[in-house]
From TrEMBL:
InterPro entries the record matches: Rer1
Ranges that cross the membrane: 39-58, 64-85, 141-158
Membrane topology summary: Multi-pass membrane protein
Function: Involved in the retrieval of endoplasmic reticulum membrane proteins from the early Golgi compartment.
This protein's name: Protein RER1
Protein's UniProt keywords contain Lyase: no
Length: 195
């Protein structure tokens, strides 16, 4: 007779946990399938950014949410542009950035990989979009000051990051396919056929 009353809530909790686990697996499945489709992922995120911008524009509010979103994206961008092992902070025996022309080539490994960068930005815009439906997040502020402060912060941060890139000679982007050229023939050399 003791277990009759306590059986209902535990069964409901187990069923809820099972359903949540199934939804989580399904979400992870589609997330994994989207991994190789970087262009389409970024197009979708750009559409989400556009919808968020329209929402903020038409509501004429939530500037503090947008400012927080901008700071978070700036933080993610720094991780995306930074090497995994920073030669300034951690001397290591593992792969490091080449600092001289005679150093061997080592591939650039990001601190924040592209997929995680995309996923974090997409989640941030989703959360910010949901926050625009709750008036408690609409703190009245003078938005031009926030925009100016964010632009100054962005400029100073990017300047520091670019100086770091120049100092340690790395480019965090792959620009086109690398081509390798063979040795150029010496001028005035005779042709192999003896012409």
């Amino acid at each position: 007779m003791e277990g009759v009353g306590g059986d209902g809530p535990s069964t409901a909790a187990a069923a809820l946990n099972q359903r949540r686990h199934e939804v989580s697996k399904l979400f992870q499945y589609y997330l994994d399938k989207s991994t190789p489709h970087a262009l389409y992922r970024w197009i979708g995120t750009s559409l989400l950014m556009f919808v968020y911008a329209l929402r903020v524009y038409y509501v004429h509010g939530f500037y503090i949410v947008s400012y927080g979103l901008g700071i978070y994206i700036l933080n993610l961008l720094i991780g995306f542009l930074s090497p995994l092992v920073d030669p300034e902070l951690e001397p290591s025996d593992g792969p490091m950035l080449p600092t001289k022309g005679s150093d061997e080539f080592k591939p650039f490994i990001r601190r924040l990989p592209e997929f995680k960068f995309w996923y974090a930005i997409t989640k941030a815009f989703c959360v910010a979009f949901v926050m625009t439906f709750f008036s408690m997040f609409d703190v009245p502020v003078f938005w031009p000051i926030l925009l100016f402060y964010w632009l100054v912060l962005f400029t100073l941060t990017m300047k520091r990051q670019i100086m770091h890139m120049i100092k340690y000679k790395y480019i965090p982007f792959n620009i086109g396919k690398q081509t390798y050229k063979g040795k150029k023939p010496a001028t005035g050399a005779s042709s192999p056929r003896g012409d």
